[in-house]
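> call design_seq(struct)
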């Protein structure tokens, strides 16, 4: 904020600013109106105490009950329920990307909740005064989209758990010199297997393997039920029409289409392709200072799920869409290179593919040379 903007904001004092420093047990509230400052602590999640403190500050500073209130907090564990609660109370709230907030680079810097709340308050005043580059505000999804994304994120968790259970079973068996297939008929094979000297499996080891196998079966059953629910929603939920559209392209399955749409493409509005690529963290990070000029690779500052998925989709695109413009470009430029060059090239292909999939959703334009499943 310029000195002139600061002076006008302090002179008018028509806005009450509130920064929230959240923690698991208590919240620290920092208030300011350009001339006064005040900080208080309340119990975490106590909205009644928050509104009470707001009323006290308005009365103490002789502000009307109808004064505009602007608040902010860092995106994190508390999610977006607080944003929606504050909005219902008539407060204009900003959810801030914590990674975008500038901090001192000193090796040792003072860090307390009081200092953090004060810094948030100062940056909020600057942001509302017109200094948009002071931080980045998070786009809050509608409750419906936030609910839908719980499904594929839970699926990711179940897949990780399935892998862990399988690895534990294999690890315990390999420690005894045994290698059994982890699949149908496992318990029967476990009864028949013998150690190197002909003895049966020790009783405690065998019992532990059975319990691990049972946990694996629970995870697999939950995974099957969850995937069935997601497939049914794709067929019946009108909000997921975009998922059905993406699935028309060869090389794009229901999991990839679901994740892309629910994470970003279904509810985020992008102004241009650069903004879209930045959202996925697929933009370059140049380093050009003095005589030092080098490329630091992609920023990786966006949605990690979308970025990882796009890399997988790019490899699938080469396999199922070999005649497309992007596949031909990749083969001409990176096809004859080393494995490292191909890994670099696949990231560039992922970025191009994301832009084309976005255009396909927005305008219906099929990527050049791409094949639809119905054709």
């Amino acid at each position: 904020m310029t000195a002139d903007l600061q002076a006008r904001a302090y002179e008018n004092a028509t806005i009450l600013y509130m920064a929230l420093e959240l923690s698991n047990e208590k919240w620290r509230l920092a208030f300011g109106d350009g001339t006064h400052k005040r900080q208080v602590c309340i119990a975490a999640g106590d909205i009644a105490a928050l509104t009470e403190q707001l009323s006290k500050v308005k009365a103490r500073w002789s502000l009307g009950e109808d004064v505009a209130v602007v608040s902010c907090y860092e995106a994190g564990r508390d999610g977006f329920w607080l944003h929606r609660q504050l909005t219902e109370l008539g407060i204009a709230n900003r959810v801030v990307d914590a990674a975008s907030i500038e901090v001192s680079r000193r090796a040792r810097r003072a860090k307390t909740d009081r200092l953090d709340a004060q810094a948030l308050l100062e940056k909020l005043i600057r942001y509302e005064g017109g200094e948009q580059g002071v931080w980045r505000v998070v786009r809050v999804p509608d409750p419906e989209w936030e609910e839908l994304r719980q499904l594929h994120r839970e699926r990711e968790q179940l897949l990780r758990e399935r892998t862990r259970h399988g690895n534990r079973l294999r690890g315990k068996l390999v420690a005894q010199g045994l290698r059994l297939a982890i699949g149908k008929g496992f318990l029967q094979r476990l009864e028949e297997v013998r150690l190197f000297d002909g003895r049966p499996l020790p009783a405690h080891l065998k019992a532990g393997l059975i319990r691990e196998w049972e946990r694996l079966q629970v995870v697999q059953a939950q995974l099957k039920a969850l995937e069935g629910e997601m497939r049914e929603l794709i067929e019946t939920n009108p909000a997921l029409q975009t998922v059905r559209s993406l699935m028309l392209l060869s090389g794009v399955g229901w999991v990839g289409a679901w994740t892309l749409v629910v994470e970003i493409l279904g509810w985020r509005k992008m102004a241009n392709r650069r903004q879209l690529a930045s959202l996925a963290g697929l933009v370059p990070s140049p380093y050009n200072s003095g005589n030092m000029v080098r490329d630091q690779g992609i920023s990786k500052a966006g949605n990690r799920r979308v970025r990882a998925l796009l890399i997988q989709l790019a490899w699938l695109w080469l396999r199922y869409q070999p005649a497309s413009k992007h596949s031909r470009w990749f083969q001409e430029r990176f096809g004859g290179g080393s494995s490292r060059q191909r890994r670099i090239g696949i990231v560039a292909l992922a970025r191009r593919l994301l832009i084309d999939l976005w255009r396909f959703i927005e305008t219906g334009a099929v990527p050049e040379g791409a094949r639809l499943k119905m054709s």
